[in-house]
Amino acid sequence: MRFSVIYQPTNLFSLKESNSTNSGAKSLLVPSPYSIKMALFNQAITIDGKEVFEDKKSKEFSYFKESKITYHVSGSFCVNNCFVTIQSLRDGLYRGKPSFREYIYLSDNIEIIFDVKNEEAKLYLQKYLHRINYFGKRGCFFQFVSYQDNPSESNVKEFDSSDFSVGIMQEYDDISPKSQFKNVDNFDSGNAMRDKKILVIPVQNVNSSKSYTHYKCN
Q: 136: which DSSP letter?
C-alpha cells in the first residue's frame, strides 16, 4: 500500500553524510530514510511515550522499520558552501574550529512516498507525519502540506549499473530490518543498526562557482 506526504521547505536544508567527519561535511540533497523515521519516532515518543516500542514484538515499531521510503523531487537545488565555527572542548576550554558545511535551498515541495504493508500501518504513520516540522539539522524547517493517496512515481532511484540516467549519486541510511528499538534509542547502549544504499537524485549541474552549485531536476 502506497501513500505520500508533501512538505514545503521553509529554510535551508542540511544533513551531512554519515561517513563525513565533524570538520568537513557535504550535505545530502534530500532527507535520508533514517532521518525521516527518526523524526517520526520523535513525534510518536513525544506524544504517546516509548513503552509501546520496547516490546520486541511491537507492531508499532515494525510500522516504522518496515516502511519503504522513496521520493519525487522537482525544481532546483542550490547548494551553498560555507565555513562555520564549531565549538569543541579541548583541555577544559571551548575553542572554535573552522568546519565545512553545505546548506541547500530547495525551490519546490518534496514528496516523500511510503510503501507500507496495510491500512493500519498507514493510519498509524499519518498520526505523526503531519506533526513533523524539521528534518536533518535542528532548524532545517519543513511545513506539512498534504497527504496523497495516489502518490507520484518516484524519480529518485536506487543505483543500478545498467541504468545510465543522468543524476547525482549519494549514500543514504535506513533502519536495518534486524534492528530493535534499543538500536534507535539514543538513551540505550545498543549500537545503531543501519542499512546503506546508493540513491541517484535526478539532477544535473547547471551552474557553479567556489561558493555554490546550482542543480536542476531533469
A: S
Kindly state the helix (H) or strand (E) to which residue 196 belongs, with its residue range.
Answer: strand 194-201
- Please work out, in degrees rounded to the nearest 5, the angle formed at the alpha carbon of residue 194 by the alpha carbons of 20 and 171: 45
Enter the C-alpha cell of residue 210: 567556489
Helix 119-129 and helix 33-48, axial crossing angle in degrees, nearest 10: 80
For 34-62, the pLDDT digits (tens) are: 999 999 999 999 999 888 888 878 899 99
Q: Tell me the β-bridge partners of 171.
A: 198
Closest CA relative to residue 135, chosen from 29, 3, 19: 29
What does the DSSP assignment read for 159-185? --TT-----EEEEEEEE-TT--GGGT-
For the chain, domain boundaries: 2-153+204-217
Measure CA of the first residue to CA of the last residue in the chain; give whole Å: 28
Q: What is the pTM of this model?
A: 0.91
Residue type, 10: T
Q: Which tens digits make up the pLDDT trace of 194-218?
A: 899 999 999 999 999 989 999 999 8
Q: Which of 65, 52, 171 is nearest to 114 (CA)?
A: 65
Pick the CATH number of 2-153+204-217 from 3.40.50, 3.30.160, 3.30.1150, 3.30.70: 3.30.70
